[in-house]
């Protein structure tokens, strides 16, 4: 009998032990699963930021495991789409007006708006020696000058401001061709259909062959590019983590590498 | 927000002009192709038919991309543009016409080919026994018999050119009065949140599409009655 009872206590001990272990195991698995369980976030990105954001997304994934689903386009249509319930959770605009407007309209999370990059405008040609500063615009020895739609994309607006500041807008108007976004404005120059074009520095920073003129900051209003966490992404860990990551040193280094300025005093 | 922008109708006229010119060119170029496709016994005929039909399935961005490269200064388009001192065929009305002809070709060639196919050999053999030359037989027998096909081809070719978007966006450059057609103007208005203007043009397009489809269906009914 004694044997039996000791056996049963032993058994219940063992059982308790096994249960405890199982529980621990479950917690451990749960924890690690929780960490490995990666969310994903939909991000609408202004076309000029295409290359840097791809690199940032890769670094972000390596660090957090979260996946970003990136859509590229002009800021204007993105704004329209977001007002019509598009499934974006974060919006990296090419301007500061649209993110602010979204926050004011209740479609963006208040106080989430911040400047992630300050864009630089360049006059660019794929041929060497074509662009030689301001004189290239004054002499206008080209048939077509490409810009992106100034009403929908801030780089287009900056290009128009530059031409106005140089008092060349009326003269150059007949030579303008317009891309729907900055990628297309760049394409027109890249395929040679336009000899020169106003593009984002980030697009041509790694291009060694062409010729360029960094448009002086005095000729156009700074292209302050703001990000906003959208209401749709408010509950998404990946979306919030991405906003934080975008403010961090890793992202800032990538952003600067592509020729953007980073807003001062925003380092976290 | 009162009153319409004065230039809202410019893209409409430009689009009608583009569609009309494209349709006329396609009737001239497309008819011999359709005839050959209907009558030829060549083995590689269906290969040509497939090439003509490709714009039906290709995304307009694919055509737009190739056209942008072909029309540029390094492509054949640049050489052609050089004839009148230009550098590129892109960003011109002529370039749009060229792109539209390629894009809308299947919509014109296919109905005409079908109509020629439906005639069969018999009427032409009869014409030949009555000593009509092949050319005379074509004009006096085949063309009148294929009239519904020509009508359908013209209507579809016109309508598809009016509705074209991807190609003109990629090779047009959005130049008012020259390449800013209806579909691009609508895109522009939506982009800049001018929804009233977008609504007017888009609503007009929807009504136009309805009329076109209705016309086509009535044409088909009439053709069926004639054949029956």
From TrEMBL, chain B:
Assigned keywords, A-Z: Cell inner membrane, Cell membrane, Membrane, Molybdenum, Transmembrane, Transmembrane helix, Transport
GO MF annotations in UniProt: molybdate ion transmembrane transporter activity
Membrane topology summary: Multi-pass membrane protein
Entry-linked PROSITE patterns: ABC_TM1
Location, primary (coarse class): membrane
ABC transmembrane type-1 domain span: 12-218
Pfam families from the UniProt entry: BPD_transp_1
Name of the molecule in the record: Molybdenum transport system permease
Originating organism: Rhodopseudomonas palustris (strain HaA2)
